[in-house]
Amino acid sequence: MARMGCDELQATAAIEQAAIAIATRRAAEKKATRTAGLWILGFGAIMLALAMYMGSGDVPNGRVGRLVMGYVVGGGASVVGIWLLLRGS
Description:
By secondary structure, the chain is mainly alpha-helical. The chain has helices at residues 8-55, 64-88. The protein is rod-shaped, with a radius of gyration of 24 Å. The chain contains 2 helices and no strands.
């Protein structure tokens, strides 16, 4: 920093400001990750609930593939949502 024309006091202040900015950015990123995880987990839970509801009755032959996709998408979204919640904490 001395080569840039800053004295020791200005360099220390700049480093402290950068550290505060980094901590603020990381906190905002964690909050965004938790929020996205909650939304994805909610979507997955709704998909699984709908697939279970549709599968509780008599499923026509042409609809079995769609029902399986509901289970796969709902289960996958739930797992991703839980992973994001754990990663964001």
